[in-house]
Amino acid sequence: MPKKERKTLMTNYDPKPTLLTLCQINDPIITHANYKKKYEQLFNDGQPISRGHADAHFFLLRQFQLIKEIKPAQYKLSSTGELICKLLCENREQEYQKALKTILLTTENKDFFKDFRKFVKRSKSLEQIKKKFGRIISNGEEREVEMYRTLIAWSEEANLITKHEFKRKVKTKLKSELYVAATPKSKTQKYSLKEFWNELKCIYKEIQAASGFGSKMFYIQIGELRLRVSAQLGFWDTKEFDYHLTKLLESKAYRLYIRLHGAPTHAYEFMQTFEFRNKKYPLISLVVVR
User: Fold this and answer.
1) Same domain, yes or no, for 34 and 115?
2) 44 assigned to some structural domain
3) How many domains does the chain have?
4) What residues does 74 pair with on adjacent strands?
5) Burial class (CB within 10 angstroms; exposed 0-12, middle 13-18, buried 19+) of 179
6) 23 with 153, same domain?
7) Of the chain's two ends, which shows fewer C-beta atoms within 10 Å, N or C?
8) What is the pLDDT of residues 121-141, one digit of tens each?
């Protein structure tokens, strides 16, 4: 049975330049040529860019219905495009993000963005995202694409997701890992200790399951746990994680189930720590996950 083909998004991970270029075109008729020229003026010091580079920007303007065709290869701003440009020009950031979010979730590419947001409802690493959204079926054959870059960049621009980086030492080098999670509906959402504890132990299990070792990894880097929980709960400042963890450790109901651990002296150079009662700990384990 032939594999089902799926359309793709052209790789474009520069949403703001893409949109600002559109908004700065003064000609009533928008073409690929005058769009390319304006982009070069604004974002490439007037130097030429390749047609493929220009295509990557112009393509999504059509896909997101920000421009509409009036004659073959000739376009004008749509009412949606006019709204986006007005909000950008007036620096109305929250309204702009809300409008862009609506565009991403309602145009013909909506399934990509809805599937992506559903996938990162629980935080995912860049490698997991690449594996899920890095291949398509074309002419009956599977091939690699970089569509995931478009999904990440435009979803972040619309505040559909938040990104967090975590640096770990691999052999003698620091390796930076990116995690992505769907942005909670409310940036100011408050969490009870129970809600924080439930998320903490859930992420702890997920990290254990992804360790790749034959037996469970009980000592987990607190920096990675902080990152994953912060991404999941929408902590824009990761100090919020430290605040909630401190509260857990001070609570009779939870402190018996949490253990903080030290490490060899040299490990502190590359492992993030958590400070509790004037001591710094790079590792954590949950004794009982109930």
Assistant:
1) yes
2) yes
3) 2
4) 71
5) buried
6) yes
7) N
8) 988 988 899 988 876 555 555
Dist. CA 288–CA 76, nearest whole Å: 62
Residue 209, burial from CB neighbour count under 10 angstroms (0-12, 13-18, 19+): exposed
The strand pair at 161-170 and 173-182 is best described as: antiparallel
Can you give the residue range of the structural domain that contains 193?
186-286
Give Cα 259 distance to the centre of its chain.
31
Tell me, yes or no, whether 54 and 96 share the same domain: yes
With a CB cutoff of 8 Å and minimum separation 6, the contacts of 131 are none
Domain assignment present for 65 = yes
Indicate if 265 and 193 belong to the same structural domain.
yes
Let me know whether 134 and 51 are in one domain: yes
pLDDT at 2: 44
117 plus 204 within the same structural domain: no
The DSSP code for 263 is -
Query: Mean pLDDT score of the chain, rounded to an integer?
Result: 85
Element (H, E) at 124: strand 124-125
Note whether residue 172 is domain-resident: no
Q: Show the low-confidence residues of the chain (pLDDT under 50).
A: 1-6, 290
In a domain, residue 168? The reply is no
pTM of the model: 0.73
In 3D space, the residue among 202, 199, 105, 198 whose CA is nearest the CA of residue 154 turns out to be 105
**Tokens standing for 149?**
């870059």
- 10 SS3 class: coil
**Integer angstrom CA distances of residue 10 from 45, 54, 61, 147, 284:** 24, 11, 11, 6, 42
pLDDT recorded at residue 212: 53
CA–CA separation, 232 and 240 (whole Å)? 12
Q: What is the pLDDT of residues 225-252, one digit of tens each?
A: 887 888 788 776 778 899 999 999 999 9
DSSP string, 30-70: B-HHHHHHHHHHHHSTT----HHHHHHHHHHHHHTTSEEEE
CB atoms within 10 A of CB 258: 20
